[in-house]
Specification:
Layout (H helix, E strand, L loop, with lengths): L10 H12 L5 E3 L2 E3 L2 H8 L4 H10 L28 H8 L7 E5 L5 E3 L1 H6 L3 E8 L5 E10 H8 L7 E10 L2 E8 H5 L3 E7 L2 E2 L9 E4 L11 E7 L25
Parallel strand pairs: 3-12
Antiparallel strand pairs: 1-2, 3-4, 5-6, 6-9, 7-8, 7-12, 9-10, 9-11
Bound molecules: the ligand Nc1nc2c(c(=O)[nH]1)N[C@H]1C(S)=C(S)[C@@H](COP(=O)(O)O)O[C@H]1N2 and molybdenum atom.
The site of molybdenum atom has 6 residues, from loops.
C-alpha cells in the first residue's frame, strides 16, 4: 500500500535542524511553521536569497508535516460539516459502492481525464498518519491512503496559466455547493493526497467517500470531501463567492495554514 510512504521520524529533517543549530541560529521548525529571533531575522533579510531560501525550506521533502506512530491513531475520526450528502445522485452512487462514480480533472490542463475509483486505486499509493485540525479547535490523528495530487497533475499536464486547483464536492451546505481551492505549491507537496482510504479501510461516507483531499499543511475546511471534479484555474474570482472556497466566501482565510 504505502510504496512511497515517508517515514514517521524523518532523519533528513533532524539533519536540517542539527545543521541550523550548528550555524548558531535559533531558527525553529514547529508544526505551525517557522519562528525566528530578531538577530537571525536581520541577517536573513540582508540576503536577497531569503525568500527563495524560505520557499525551498518550506517545500523541501525535509520539512514534511509531522507524522505519528500507529498507536496514536484516534479512536474516533470525528466527522464535521456534511456527513452524508443528501442529494439523490450521490446516494445512488453510494448504494452501488461508487462503481459508477467518476473523477473529472479538467480546466487549465493539456490532458483532461475522467477516472473511476478502480483506476485511482491502480495508481501508486501513499499512506500517512497525520493530525486533522479543525478551525473549531478540535483535532484527531488518522491514517490516510491515496494518490499524490502531484502524480495526478503530472498525468493531466497543467498549462502555464494554471495557478489554483479547485475541488468541487457532491454536497450542499446550507444551500450552496461545497468547494475549495489550493495553490499549485500546496498541490505539489509530497504530503498532499487524494485519499480513498482511512485507517486501513475504505474511506467512510462520513469522512468524504469516495474521495477527499488531504492537504496536511492546512486546516480541516480546506480538505474537501465528496470530490466529484477537480478544475485547474488561473483565478477563482468567478467561482461562487469568489474567495476560493465555501468557508472563505463566509470570511475564513484562504491559506489557512496549521
Ligand atoms: N464537501 C465537504 N468537505 C468538507 C466539509 C464539508 O462540510 N463538506 N467540512 C470541512 C471541515 S470544516 C472539516 S473540519 C473536515 C472534516 O473532515 P472529517 O469529516 O473527515 O472529519 O472536512 C472539511 N471538508
Ligand atoms: Mo473544520
Amino acid at each position: 500500500m504505502s510504496k512511497s510512504s515517508p517515514s514517521a521520524f524523518d532523519p533528513g529533517r533532524r539533519r536540517l535542524l542539527a545543521g541550523l543549530a550548528a550555524g548558531g541560529s535559533s531558527l525553529l521548525l514547529t508544526g505551525c511553521g517557522l519562528s525566528r529571533n530578531d538577530t537571525v531575522q536581520a541577517a536573513f533579510e540582508a540576503s536577497e536569497d531569503f525568500t527563495h531560501w524560505m520557499h525551498d525550506l518550506l517545500t523541501s521533502p525535509d520539512t514534511r508535516v509531522r507524522q505519528y506512530p500507529p498507536e496514536m491513531i484516534s479512536a474516533y475520526p470525528k466527522p464535521n460539516g456534511t456527513s452524508n450528502p443528501d442529494n439523490p445522485h450521490y446516494q445512488k452512487l453510494a448504494a452501488n459502492n461508487f462503481a459508477e462514480w467518476r473523477l473529472q480533472v479538467d480546466g487549465e490542463v493539456e490532458e483532461p481525464v475522467k477516472l473511476s475509483l478502480a483506476e485511482l486505486r491502480a495508481m501508486p499509493s501513499q499512506s500517512q498518519i497525520t493530525r486533522h485540525d479543525c478551525v473549531e479547535g478540535w483535532s484527531y490523528i488518522a491514517k490516510w491512503t491515496g494518490v499524490r495530487l502531484a502524480a495526478m497533475l503530472e498525468r493531466v499536464q497543467p498549462t502555464a496559466k494554471a495557478r489554483y486547483v479547485v475541488f468541487f464536492c457532491a454536497d450542499d451546505l446550507f444551500g450552496d455547493q461545497y468547494y475549495e481551492s489550493i495553490s499549485m505549491e500546496s498541490a505539489r507537496d509530497p504530503m498532499t493526497i487524494l485519499a480513498y482510504g482511512l485507517n486501513g479501510g475504505k474511506l467512510p461516507i462520513a469522512n468524504g467517500a469516495p474521495l477527499r483531499l488531504r492537504a496536511e499543511r492546512q486546516l480541516g475546511y480546506k480538505m474537501a470531501k465528496y470530490i466529484t471534479r477537480i478544475e485547474l484555474v488561473n483565478s477563482t474570482t468567478h467561482i461562487q463567492g469568489g474567495n476560493g472556497g465555501y468557508w472563505e466566501d463566509r470570511g475564513y482565510w484562504w491559506w489557512a495554514g496549521v
